[in-house]
Amino acid sequence: MSKLAAQDKFFDLSDYGRSPGKLFAKRLKNTRFTPIHVTLLFGLSGLIAVYFIVQNQYYLAGVFIILKSIIDAADGELARLKKRPSYTGRYLDSVFDIFLNFFFLSAICYVSATPFWVALLAFFCIQLQGTLYNYYYVILRNKSIGGDSTSKVFEYKMPKALPGESQKSVAILFEIYTLVYGGFDKIIHTFDSDAYRVKTLPNWFMTFVSIYGLGFQLLIIALMLALDYIEYIAPFFIVYSIFIFILIGIRKRYFRH
Known about the structure:
GO biological process, one term: phospholipid biosynthetic process
Organism: Flavobacterium sp. WC2409
Largest sheet: none
EC number: 2.7.8.-
Oligomer: single chain
CATH architecture: Up-down Bundle
Number of helices: 10
Pfam families: CDP-OH_P_transf (PF01066)
Mean pLDDT: 91
Distance between the termini: 28 Å
CATH superfamily: CDP-alcohol phosphotransferase transmembrane (TM) domain
Shape: globular
Keywords: Membrane, Transferase, Transmembrane, Transmembrane helix
Structural class: mainly alpha
């Protein structure tokens, strides 16, 4: 099952890992590997990238950050191929993402002249940017006929476990998810509280929004590391947040319910 109906698919700048991720998932389809195993693998790739940042091996760190993005795309693809969607995988994936983002910025702070408060502000900005992308993307997925609706626009109610997963695992991960993402969700919902009422969002707009997708954010970090621009990474993402207000302004002005 695709995340979006054919007419709602857009050029997603953050989704460059999808094609190699699909190939990887296909190789695992008839094996004992589960989507959770793949999620754990992308977590390991992210931690290796953190290690290389601390060791001042920035090019290798960038390689493993990109690899993390590719593997990140594979877990969802494998779940769809095996027809085993799960809330456990959905929440575990997101929890890993936010902690790895924090580790990336912390490692960058450790090896550079970046003050910790600047790294912390950059982390906040990155998460807020990603939340805006996810907010609009999940709205589109839920409006799309035949699209994937595992993710919800408003994650305030614990879902019932799907076949093959434990309700206890879903409950624990849901609580962690709402704890680490809840504040960012509330901020974005406050900025654009009625976006979920729109009938659809045009493809060109969603392509613009995808500059805030996690894959594109990580691509920028990887490139800046490879070019030895480590001192500029945190300040860049702080300034990059200006597009939050531009995107919300466009949505409110041109795409109303």
